[in-house]
Write a structure and sequence with these properties.
Radius of gyration: 14 Å
Protein name: YdhG-like domain-containing protein
Number of domains: 1
Oligomer: single chain
CATH topology: Aspartate Aminotransferase, domain 1
Strand content: 15-25%
Pfam families: DUF1801
Helix content: 40-55%
CATH architecture: Alpha-Beta Complex
Shape: globular
Largest sheet: 6 strands, antiparallel
């Protein structure tokens, strides 16, 4: 069953290790609540949300869930790093024992939606 490629975000979450599912469910709900017009799907074998282009997505790693979004600025990376999250150019790692920084993620999703609408 692990060899089957998920066709939906829910399948991706359901087929992931239990310790990662809570984070992914919260991310899914946050993205969908913040941008209700976003369409979910699987691209590059991971959950991706689109709204006038790619909005956001997430993937599973061995010890964390990675949230990806193009609107991640240096300022926001600094804020998230200070809160204990590891960031990359366009990604934020959420360890299985961390909560989602909902306020910051909501701002990022809103900003990305605005950028996509241009």
């Amino acid at each position: 069953m692990a060899d089957l490629k998920p066709k939906t975000v829910d399948e991706f979450i359901d087929n992931s290790p239990e310790k990662s599912q809570g984070i992914m469910i919260k991310l899914k709900k946050l993205i969908e609540a913040t941008e209700p017009n976003a369409e979910s799907g699987i691209s590059w074998n991971v959950p991706i949300y689109k709204c006038n282009g790619i909005l956001a997505g997430f993937s599973l790693a061995k010890k964390h869930v990675s949230f990806g979004i193009d609107s991640l600025t240096e300022e926001m990376r600094k804020i998230l790093n200070e809160k204990g999250y590891k960031t990359g150019k366009k990604t934020i790692q959420i360890k299985f024992n961390q909560d989602i920084p909902s306020k910051e993620f909501k701002l990022l999703i809103q900003e990305q939606a605005k950028l996509n609408a241009l």
